[in-house]
Amino acid sequence: MLHVSPSDLAASSIEALRVLVPAALPAAGYVITAETPAHVPAREALLDRAMGPGRVRKSSEVIRRGRLPADGLAFAATGLDQSLLGTLRLWHVAAGTRDGAPVAALLLGPLAIEPSAQGLGLGGALMRHAVGEAKRLGHGAILLVGDPAYYARFGFSCASTARLAMPGPFEQHRLLALELKAGALSAAGGLIVGTGRAAGSRATRALQLSQRVGVAA
Ligand SMILES: CC(C)(COP(=O)(O)OP(=O)(O)OC[C@H]1O[C@@H](n2cnc3c(N)ncnc32)[C@H](O)[C@@H]1OP(=O)(O)O)[C@@H](O)C(=O)NCCC(=O)NCCS
């Protein structure tokens, strides 16, 4: 769990956040935790508010649909009153192939911050936490589709994505990647496809149940 104190954010930002979401921002700041099943209804409502109903038609959604996020890489940012302020998940994919073999990577998204709390550093905090965890867990590269002007600050670029494609309409200049291990995406080319565990399998239901009752799995 990442604790972020007010000193981590500009004083003016903290003050603005208190004004905008007085119930959501406790004096101690906010926390980034692993997403749990209890976050799901608020997460879906937040995604609808932040991204609109068209979010389910994105090419990234084709990759995510029916699958679970990568283990340990689904995050929730909450106020200390437990209200959801931000969501970010990462998914197992094959970033095309190299010499005929799938290239393992992660797809990042969706990232969304509660509209009344945007522009105050929460998105950045979630991104840095997620990238750090993905690296700690030994993943080689992260892909995403998003605004280069936002994601460049976290090291993402289109330098290694020119030969990759999404399974649906996408803008090539918005297909970005960050290599966590040097050369992880070199010579990778082709279609990005989901490779994560299917949601709804017996193993998945058991995992979800264990999480609901608080059993370590
Ligand atoms: C994009 C989003 C996640 C950023 O989170 P946030 O908490 O608002 O962002 P932060 O406070 O960490 O960063 C703010 C900075 O990012 C910049 N920024 C935000 N969105 C941007 C965008 N789409 N393109 C370029 N810069 C952007 C701001 O101008 C600000 O810049 P500054 O630091 O130079 O002042 C958030 O605004 C959001 O949820 N938007 C709606 C959903 C969405 O678009 N998700 C991303 C899909 S690709």
TrEMBL record:
Alphabetized GO MF terms: acyltransferase activity
Keyword Methyltransferase in annotation: no
EC number per UniProt: 2.3.1.-
Protein name in the entry: N-acetyltransferase
Boundaries of every N-acetyltransferase domain copy: 30-181
Leading EC class: transferase
Species annotation: Fulvimarina uroteuthidis
Pfam family, one: Acetyltransf_7
Keyword set includes Transferase: yes
Transmembrane segments: none
This protein's UniProt keywords: Acyltransferase, Transferase
